[in-house]
Sequence to fold (446 residues):
Amino acid sequence: MRIVMIGSGYVGLVSGACFADFGHHVTCVDKDANKIARLRAGGIPIYEPGLDDLVARNVAAGNLDFTTDLSDAVGAADVVFIAVGTPSRRGDGHADLSYVHGAAREIAAALDGFTVVVTKSTVPVGTGDEVERILRECNPAADFAVASNPEFLREGAAIEDFKRPDRVVIGIEDPRARPSMEEVYRPLSLNKAPIVFTSRRTSELIKYAANAFLAMKITYINEMADLCEHVGADVQEVARGIGLDNRIGAKFLNAGPGYGGSCFPKDTLALMKTAQDHDAPLRLIEATVAVNEQRKRAMGRKVIAAMEGQVRGRTVAILGLTFKPNTDDMRDAPSIAIIQALQDAGARIRAFDPEGMSAADLMLRDVEYASSPYEAAEGAAATVIVTEWDAFRALDLSRLKAAMAEPVLVDLRNIYPPSHVEEAGLTYVGIGRPGEPEVRNERQAA
Fold:
């Protein structure tokens, strides 16, 4: 099939490259001429393991190309995916659909013959209805069907998620869209991936409901971690004990500094606003959003407590800046709030991240960047693991201690067993373990 992907960002580029690898012909369209030029030259604008090889292979095979010309690409397409950004709108937290609506208007003018137009972007319930209205209004003679096909890709594992998905969700209202969408995903039949056909609005809500549930699970175990510190329990053992119940499951039960990234923060906020607009408030999601925001800043105070409040003028080494490993994405990363809290207390920050320092430099001020974890720790009064990159899982702790001015390791991801760290002569502070420095929450601090 001939597929067009409008938007060559994270979702659009990964999805387009994977569809091309299935054997479809895919054209990725983007208004950013510099991005398209870079892609044509073999450059990849985002970091995602394996994506550079996947793109290069399919460009060489003639299955994948890139253009700024939406009109020609859409006119020849069987299926057009809208994969543009839907960031939180300033002022009210709703999803900003201006890019989706703009894409729909441009698509309408270029349609030629029956075409399935698919929202791949994460969009609020009812967006497909609005896309259909725009298409019809802008081109009354056009022959098309509008479908919803949300993505469920984890940054750092997106290619595997796309090719071996837990499920594929497709929402349709016009039955003519079904054969086209079945053909698009036919290569997945070998893996027997469940394809769920449902209504368009249900499909749109499934995406938000899934992300909100996972965000809530993360926040739940983080609050359990706080309780563990007060009552002398170990959150990792609590997580294992409850995660072995297959009704709960072990995934997303790793205590840490809070969730971030391109999806959970904006999607929980957008779902919360949608629910409020429809007079069906989601109190659990509202609490999740509030608690997660409080937690990020609280982790800065946890570091200060580990340093016994002696922060001003001292260097803190930050290991990991991105919101998770295997990505260069800094959007809503916990490191931002942690660093700002430490800087507000007078600390100097030296940081290292395997992939995220360029992006971090655009968002953070007065941060010194190092070329290795050990350079970051040189002369530091504390070293803080914020992101669980593999590069931080087997540090030479003796070398780390030798580099530091004070031997304090704050492990916000519980990568290391405390005994292992203490054997190296370091003071260990983790998350949700007995005897951790007490940190007041935002309500107590207010």
